[in-house]
Amino acid sequence: MLKTRFENYPKGKQFSAILGDLLGRGIFNVDGEPWMFQRKMASLELGKISIRSYAFEVVNSEIKTRLVPLMLSLSDGKGDNNLLDLQDVFRRFSFDSICRFSFGLDPKCLELSLPMSEFAVSFDRASNISAERAMTSSPWIWKVKRILKLGSERQLKRRHHDDQCPGPRAGRDTVASALTSLFWLLSRHPEVELAILAEVDRVVGANQELTSFEQMQELHYLEATVYENMRLYPPIQFDSKFCLDDDFLSDGTFVKRGTRVTYHPYAMGRMEEIWGPDCLKFKPERWLRDGVFFQENPFKYPVFQAGLRVCLGKEMALVKLKTVALSLLRRFHIKLAVPDDQGLQFSPGLTATLRGGLPVLIQERKDQKPIVLVHTDNTQL
Ligand code: HEM
């Protein structure tokens, strides 16, 4: 579906209808010529060194001026209520950075005293309604609701921002989702957290800042951890296409035209045939060969999709994830404030979101390390 017969599996009209009110005719929601054109434009934009430098400048300034001060204000018993919903913080963080990056606007969502901006709240609501559409048994149910302007469909306002820019949905929810599951996993695997910290001390120096992307690329164990996190908890758990003409899958399964076909990274990450008998284990080492990160076949790990329509923001997302993770891990102890014996429970939505958020307690490290500051004039990616 993603590899040899890509043309036969477009997103299709049904997907376009489900997400049309949310995404307009943006890159996520079109096929054929319009998609090819938008992809070319988006990859030119996202590929520019200047754009990447700007993105990292924004992320680093968000970390330094908002994220760290916010965590500090809640650490070690400061403030009235020290419980922090890390998922909410990551969503606000990602939303602020993506808006500053894409539109030059600063919605200041990370100032926790402020409510989520209206734009962010309506974006969330619209995305949930679109997911509800995808799950209704028959497309007629939501279509009729829309025509009659009933219930959730009445609330779904047409959105335009994504027509011009793949920013918000692409970058915000997915990165926030990956960060949330990463911190949940690390709280259950202190040995992995220690190995990440030991690696960064070794590569950068115990009291030194990380100053270049070359150094970031030497952090093989961190890279492996980020990949392993998304193997078990992919931010986009599944993604569907529609079969254009009758087809046979490589295992001989017949697919009738018009059938919705789904690839499911969440399920694939849990398959013994793909990852072996320890597939359910969180084990960053599986991505290392002699200590060096080894990239798996993207069709085995379609977390960013694979093939012609692979995610355009993958590299940017990875550096963002690693930068935030290191900045927080080097400066704070983050402890789960809920029993850690339960698995994760997700709410319905286009990207994986934890039901009930991720409540944590923050403690500043005594053996504090400098926060990560990447100097953007050294951009290599
Ligand atoms: C961990 C973070 C991310 C994950 C897991 C992820 C995953 C994905 C997946 C699965 C798709 C295919 C979705 C579909 O076709 O419906 C996709 C497409 C895309 N992503 Fe990402 N993404 C992430 C972050 C980002 C970021 C930060 C950006 C941009 C700054 C971005 C830009 C895009 C674009 C433009 C596409 C559409 C490509 C096309 O249709 O040709 N993504 N991503």
UniProtKB/TrEMBL annotation:
SUPFAM superfamilies: Cytochrome P450 (SSF48264). The keyword Metal-binding applies. One of its GO terms (molecular function) is iron ion binding. Keywords: Heme, Iron, Metal-binding, Oxidoreductase. Heme binds at residue 311. InterPro entries: Cyt_P450, Cyt_P450_E_grp-I, Cyt_P450_sf. The keyword Heme applies. Transmembrane segments: none annotated. Its cofactor is heme. Belongs to the cytochrome P450 family. This is Cytochrome P450, family 94, subfamily C, polypeptide 1. It comes from Actinidia rufa.
